[in-house]
Amino acid sequence: MHMSVIQAQLHQRGMPFLLPLIVFAALVEAVGAVSLVLGYYHAFTARVLLIYTLLAVLLVHFVPGEPVQMMLVMRDLSLMGGLLLVAAGDTGALALKRSPLV
């Protein structure tokens, strides 16, 4: 999705500081994904992404009148379930660094 489309959608919902929020969201998603794939502090990363996804659901995607947004809510709820499994589990012997939070 193009940056201007995202900014317009968030501006309609009254979100302040659009560009910093979008850049922060992209960084959290990118760094979190790489950290999970490599197994680097997987439990901590999963918890951070869980909180991030919950905030995204509540602040951005939860629009009961829009079917597409509600579909994104369902997608994010399934992602949160997977993140809970990652936070509770073990990455195994191939992890770069085991999380002390497990």
What's a concise summary of this model?
It is built from 4 helices and no strands. The protein is an all-alpha fold and 102 residues long.
Descriptive keywords:
4 helices, mainly alpha
Descriptive report:
The mean pLDDT is 83. The chain has 102 residues and is mainly alpha-helical.
SSE ordering: HHHH
Quantity of strands, as a count: 0
Low-confidence stretches: none
Q: Please state roughly what percent of the residues sit in beta strands, choosing from under 5%, 5-15%, 15-25%, 25-35%, 35-45% or over 45%.
A: under 5%
Shape category:
elongated
Mean pLDDT: 83
How helix-rich are the residues, as a percent range?
over 70%
Count of DSSP H/I helices: 4
Instruction: Assign the structural class, choosing from mainly alpha, mainly beta, alpha/beta, alpha+beta, or little secondary structure.
Output: mainly alpha
Largest sheet: none
Termini Cα gap: 36 Å
From the alpha-carbon coordinates, what is the Rg to the nearest angstrom?
15 Å
Describe the protein's topology.
Layout: H1 3-12, H2 18-38, H3 42-61, H4 67-88
